[in-house]
Every structure is written in C-alpha cells, then in structure tokens.
Design goal:
Layout: H1 3-14, H2 19-26, H3 31-45, E1 48-51, E2 53-58, H4 84-96, E3 101-106, H5 114-124, E4 130-134, H6 140-149, E5 153-155, H7 163-169, H8 175-188, E6 191-198, H9 205-218, E7 222-227, H10 243-258, H11 268-273, H12 277-282, E8 288-289, H13 315-328, E9 332-333
Parallel strand pairs: 1-8, 1-9, 2-3, 3-4, 4-5, 5-6, 6-7
The protein binds S-adenosylmethionine (SAM), iron/sulfur cluster and FE2/S2 (inorganic) cluster.
Length: 343
C-alpha cells in the first residue's frame, strides 16, 4: 500500500488527518483522494443533492476585498439594491420552483438595517422554507435578531487563515473579528457555513492545510470552496490560473473526508472555470448546488468575478437543467430542507 493509500484508509476509518497528511494529499494528483471523498459522501449524506435558491439582492459593498469585483473602490461596477418587497417576491418564486432553501446574499450594505432584514426574513419564513444569510460581518446582536426572525443558516467564508495574507487582501478588516463573527453565529444556534478561496496570490499549500483544519475546529455545518477568479477591475487582475480548479477540488475533497456529514456545495465558481465543474465536484464529495433565482436585469451586475455561468438563463430553466445534470450521474434532487445530517 502506498503512503497515500495508507493515509486515505486511515481517514476513511477515523475522519481525521494531521497537517502533514493534508499536505501530502494536496500535493497528490487527487485521483485516489476523489475516490474516497465520493465514497465518504455517499455513505454519510447519500445520493440526494440539496438545491439552494440564491438571491443576490444588493451589489453595494462598503468593503474593499482585493479580489472582489463588488469592492467599493470599483467605480465601474453598476450598483443596484432590491427593495424588501422584491426580495420577498423572488423568494416566493423560489418556493414555487420547489426550492426548500433560499440564500439571501449581498455586499456589506448597511441600507439593510436590522428592522428591514428582520421584516424580509419573517415574511419569507411564512413559507415552509429554510433561510440562509450571506451578508457579511455584523454584530452579535444583529445575528441574534436575524435568528429570532427566522434565519436558519449563515455563510461567512474565512477566505484564508493565513493572517498575513488576510491582512494584505483585506487591509480594512480584522481577521479576529471575522473569527468572532463565526463563533457568534455558531453560538447563537445557526448552522454555520464557512470556506476559503483557493489560488490567491502568495497562498501556500501549508496555509490551505490550515484552512481545512480551521473548518474542523470551528465545527462547520457547511463549507464552500471557491477557486479564485481574477476580476479585471481589482488590484488582483490578471490571468486565471486553471490549476486553481484542481486545487480547489482537492481542498473540497479533503474537507469531506474529515467532516463526513456536512453540506458541501459544488460552487458556481468551479463551473465558471470548468464547464463540467459542478458535476465533477458532486462526484468528488459535494452534495449541494446553489442555482441563482434572481430573474432580473440586475443578475448580470452581481459580478464578483467575470464570466459567471447562467447569467442569461431563467430560474426555471436552471432548475430543470441542474436536475437533468444531477440525474445524469445517478443522483437525485433531495426533497428535504437539507439541514446538517438530513438526507
Ligand atoms: N459580502 C459577503 C461576504 O463577503 O461574505 C457575501 C458576498 S461575497 C461576494 C461571497 C463570496 O464571494 C466571498 O466569500 C468570496 O469568497 C467570493 N469571491 C469574491 N471575489 C471572488 C473572486 N474574484 N473569485 C472567486 N470568488 C470570489
Ligand atoms: Fe464586499 Fe463580500 Fe466582495 Fe468583500 S467579498 S468586497 S465583503 S461583496
Ligand atoms: Fe443554469 Fe444549466 S444551471 S442553465
């Protein structure tokens, strides 16, 4: 048995890995790893794929993350924000399309204060549907209010656990505050989602291993891994590195090995840089897909990175298209809300 196979057999039994073992897996070609991560996915969360309907309700952001097209210094971004009633309407459309979860995502936009957000959440919650928020860093009191209004889950990627790289990417932000947010979210009783970007300038394999260990130590219920895609109107503009796909896939697969029953999306960014990206991800450990349900001229304006998929497709078409793709690999769309551990 090769050393790689020994590591994989051990993880398969114990769901744990040391940092040096993670590094060995990240340096491998991934072929053996994906066989195991797919098996661990199948045995722990089954063949159902949870669909989450994504509503990107505002591209206005006060932050200046160096990688993101929505960063506030990008004067070329054409900004929009949806009024609460419209957000509620799009969520309703999602319910009609059969979604059991809606994900409300935006830039860090203070227009949506606690009252507005609680109103939106409680109105959407009148439907029998789970709500995920992905609106950035807020106070513990705000997180508590959103939870009390009916929000179930919260996505906030740590982006990178390399503190020096974090500071370079987010000079205006504080790594410790991001961790504080994640801990508050967990503590309040949300299902907590985090994750990282893969392929950032000066990012090391060593730090990616730390990212994976961070997901485990946080007790994440969901982990989303995205390949970094350079945006031309950001300081990190430049050529896309196609290797980011393979590395992101490996980070995702290793995460499945050590957190066997969590929810892991096949991310849109993966499909943006590989036409089969989401299917490959679903066969390498993922069990969630998050199609966009914002049928509006605004959809194209939520340009965090260029060439996003499905920008001109109607939500109904995406719903059928993705179900067809899921069925084509012998999997099915789950009919549950897909909480952590629910098949
Ligand atoms: N503003 C919220 C936040 O940052 O948590 C939510 C929206 S933000 C656009 C969602 C995610 O987009 C971020 O967590 C980041 O990982 C990802 N993202 C931003 N720019 C990206 C890029 N150039 N390539 C790939 N993913 C990117
Ligand atoms: Fe704003 Fe989120 Fe983009 Fe950072 S990643 S600039 S917080 S939308
Ligand atoms: Fe949008 Fe295929 S998922 S067209």
């Amino acid at each position: 048995m090769t050393s790689l196979n020994k590591i994989l057999e051990k993880t398969y039994e114990k769901h744990s890995l040391t940092k040096s073992e993670i590094i060995e897996l990240l340096n491998s070609d991934g072929k053996e790893l994906y066989k195991y991560s797919d098996r661990v996915r199948q045995e722990n969360v089954g063949d159902g794929v949870h669909l989450r309907g994504l509503i990107e309700f505002s591209n206005i952001c006060k932050c200046s993350c160096k990688y993101c097209g929505l960063r506030s210094p990008n004067n070329r971004a054409d900004r929009y924000r949806l009024e609460p009633d419209d957000i509620i309407k799009y969520a309703q459309n999602g319910v009609e399309l059969g979604y059991k979860t809606v994900v409300l995502q935006s830039g860090e936009d203070n227009y949506y204060d606690t009252d507005k957000l609680c109103h939106i959440i409680s109105e959407i919650k009148k439907n029998d549907i789970a709500i995920t928020l992905s609106i950035g860093e807020r106070t513990r009191e705000e997180y508590q209010a959103f939870k009390d209004a009916g929000a179930d889950r919260y996505l906030l990627r740590i982006e990178t656990t390399d503190k020096e790289l974090y500071k370079f990417l987010h000079p205006h932000m504080d790594f410790n505050n991001r961790v504080r947010c994640l801990k508050d979210i967990k503590d309040i009783g949300y299902e907590v989602g985090t994750g990282c970007l893969v392929g950032l300038p000066n990012q090391t394999i060593d730090s990616l291993a730390d990212d994976i260990l961070f997901f485990k130590s946080l007790g994440a219920d969901m982990v989303g891994i995205g390949p970094f895609i350079p945006h031309p109107e950001t300081p990190l503009k430049g050529e896309l590195n196609p290797k980011n796909f393979d590395m992101a896939l490996k980070v995702m697969a290793i995460t499945r090995l050590i957190l066997p029953d969590i929810n892991i999306p096949a991310t849109t960014a993966m499909e943006t840089i590989n036409p089969m990206g989401r299917i490959i991800a679903l066969q390498s450990g993922a069990n969630v897909v998050m199609p966009n349900i914002l049928d509006s001229e605004y959809k194209v304006k939520y340009e965090i990175y260029p060439n996003k998929i499905c920008l001109n497709e109607h939500s109904g078409k995406c719903r059928n298209c993705i179900e067809g793709k899921i069925n084509s690999i012998g999997r099915y769309v789950s009919s549950t809300k897909g909480f952590h551990g629910e098949k």
